[in-house]
Amino acid sequence: MNRGWLASLNRLINRSKIRAGNGNVLKNKEKLTGFRGSLVIPGGRVGVLLIHSLGGNPMELRFVAQSLAREGCTVYCPLLPGLGGGTDVSGLSTWQDWYAAAEKALADLQAHCDTIFVGGMSAGSMVALQLARKHPETVQSLLLFAPTLWPNGWTIPWTFNFFKLVHQKWFANLFHFRQRAPYGIKDDRIRNFVFDSYKTGDRPIEDLFGRGGGLVFEFLRLARDVKKGLAGIKQNTVIFHPREDDQSDLSNALLLQRRLGGMVETVVLDDSYHMVTLDKQRNIVVDRAVDFVQRQRQRIEEREAVNRWKTGQQTERESSAMGGEDRSA
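Given the sequence above, the corresponding structure tokens read:
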């Protein structure tokens, strides 16, 4: 995405004056700084890492981030080099580069938080799943927004299927995929705001929203790798997916629901297109995301309380046994 769109949404964030909820709020010296262009909202010891879409930026997730911050969470939405719009002009980055940046962001958040949830928008959900797969002890639960394993929504031309035949990145770089209206947004007001932010020069809006073939090639490689390990991802997951997704058919979410190894909740939206975190039903998405995080936090706290009780019981038994041995002596 261009810098005007990013700057406009950043100004909205700065004006929102978000206050973290009560709890163990991070001190100034402990606050995350993040990659340049990232969104960081300091809060308590529960952290949420949110990954933006392919060619997107963290502002796509600002409504979710703000709401989770109000519940006292520390929220980090990094602008991932290569995955973010305008961060890989040369087209040389790989999905391993995106993942390495996400892994660093996870480590940074882990240094400040005791409990971590990870979420992703569209292609970002693949990065989130990869993190959960590689770091099962760190990533407690997952939030997936319009997850995409293969772009097959109703605006994607059937000819895109021929891209499966492309096996070399140099050849993929010869392609440029133009997006079609409605560009993932059903809400006319939000879509017009995005268009106004994009108006630079005489380039058609379809090109400005487009994706280079190399970028798409790397994303599909990542999706294939993630797909192989879905059964091993045991974290509880919530999926938000529109029934009328113009970019990513509902079948993507249903495949994840079938193959993921943990409990999966699926919220099917009936009045939204692909960008569910910005579109008409964003309030439903936000409310259900906050509810999911709250329930998972409670589950973790209850589990930790049980573990502490078991540890106490074990210690008490050991102390009693030692006392018995002393009396015998």
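The CA atoms of residues 92 and 214 lie 8 Å apart. Try to locate this feature in the token string yourself.
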